[in-house]
Structures are given as C-alpha cells and as structure tokens.
Amino acid sequence: MAKQAVARTYSSPLRAEQAEHTRQRIVQAAVDLLSEGDAGDLSMPEVAARAGVSVRTVYRSFATKDDLLDGVIEWINHKINQETGARPETREDYETSTADVVRVIFEIEPLYRALFATRAGRASHRRTNRREENLRVAYATEIADLDDDQARRFMAVLHVVASSQAGLFMKDYWDLSAQDAGQVIEWAIRVLADAASDPEQREGL
User: Fold this and answer.
1) How high is the pLDDT of residue 127?
2) Rounded to an integer, what distance in angstroms lies between the CA atom of residue 28 and that of residue 62?
3) What is the pLDDT at residue 96?
4) Confidence at residue 83, expressed as pLDDT on a 0 to 100 scale
5) Less CB within 10 Å around the terminal CB: N or C of the chain?
6) 180-189 burial, b for 16+ CB within 10 Å, e for fewer?
C-alpha cells in the first residue's frame, strides 16, 4: 500500500521577520504623517508612499484604516512602556509613574492630538485601552467597601484625572509644563484614593 502523503506547513522565520519589519515601517509612516497633520486626512495610499511600499502591501498588513490606527496606538503604548518601564499594576505605580507618562505624551503631543481629533482615532483608543480593568485591579482595596455605582463613579473620575487628555488640558488652559501637570495629577489621584478609603470623605460619591 502506498504511503499517503502528509501535508506539511512551513513558516519561514526570515519571512515572518520581514513581514514584521514591513509592518513596523508602515506604522512608523502613519505615526509620522499623523504627527504632521490631521488623522481625518490619513489615507492608505499616502501611508504606502511614505513607507515606500505598495498600497497592496499596506492592506496585507492592515486590512482597514481602523486596524492601522490600532497599530499606531500600539506604537504609542510601546513608546510609553519603553520610556517609563512596565505598565502600572498597583496604586503605588500609578502615583509614581503617571508623571513620566505625561512627559512622554507631551513629547508626542501632535500625534496624540491628531488621533483624538477624529472619531476613528478616539474609537481606536477606546477599543485598545485596558485602563478601566487595570485601575480596578490597582485600586481593589479602595473600592472594596464601595457599592457598584460608587465604584464606577470613583473609577470614572480617577480615569479622567489620570488621563493624558487631562495633562494636555492643563497645558492648554493653565500653561502647565509636563513636569507640573504630571506632579499635580499624581497628587490628585492620591487624594482621590485616600478620600475613597475614608467613610466620612466619600459621602456623596
């Protein structure tokens, strides 16, 4: 009896490395274009031209513009993690590393503003953001005695105060530097967490 041929699949490490390199070039092109202009004007052909690849290659790496914007958010998160260390996991992390995150956001301000200027950019940020989950873990002790509604409201205000948008707002309306904005944000989230832990201070939450 003749032996039945067994189909084998082979994935070339070199090919995978080249594909990842091309993907990174495309994302970097999108980052550069967004830093120079408006996210609403970003087009796949324009990204392809900046990256030095074909439009088909861009769509091979990113099926849609939303996927590409997700890649840009991933680039931002990687940059923040590179410059500030691992993502915050505890209350202490948030109260000692947020200032560094604000500093990085100020450094890439044009890119960040371009993303949030469009619905697609904001949707991408929300789709890829795990801040709510991370905050609930980091502040588990502070919300342990709160009911669900109180915990949600506390998490919401903490999220707003600790956000990059809050830092940019302080720059726009109060001329705060990255250092000043980061410092006062860390102070504010510490005060909020202390208040949530105190039965007398959390009245009305």
Assistant:
1) 87
2) 13
3) 94
4) 92
5) N
6) bbbebbbebb
pLDDT of 129 reads 82
Question: Under a CB-based contact definition with an 8 Å cutoff, are residues 111 and 165 in contact?
Answer: no
CA distance 87 to 75: 14
Query: The tokens 């202009």 sit on which residue?
Result: 37
Is the pLDDT assigned to residue 117 strictly greater than 80? yes
83-94 per-position pLDDT tens digit: 998 788 999 999
Structure tokens at 67: 């996927």
The number of CA neighbours under 13 Å toward the Cβ of 169 is 10
- Residues 196, 143 contacting (CB under 8 angstroms): yes
C-alpha–C-alpha distance, residues 175 and 74, integer Å? 29
Alpha-helical regions (H) of the chain: 13-36, 44-51, 55-61, 65-84, 91-107, 109-116, 119-128, 131-138, 140-143, 148-161, 164-174, 178-197
Residues 6+ apart with CB under 8 A from 12: none
DSSP string, 52-112: TS-HHHHHHH-SSHHHHHHHHHHHHHHHHHHHH-SPP-SHHHHHHHHHHHHHHHHHTHHHH
| Domain annotation for the chain: domains and CATH numbers | 14-197 (1.10.357.10)
Written as six digits, the tokens of 173 are 């309306």
The pTM assigned to this predicted structure is 0.84
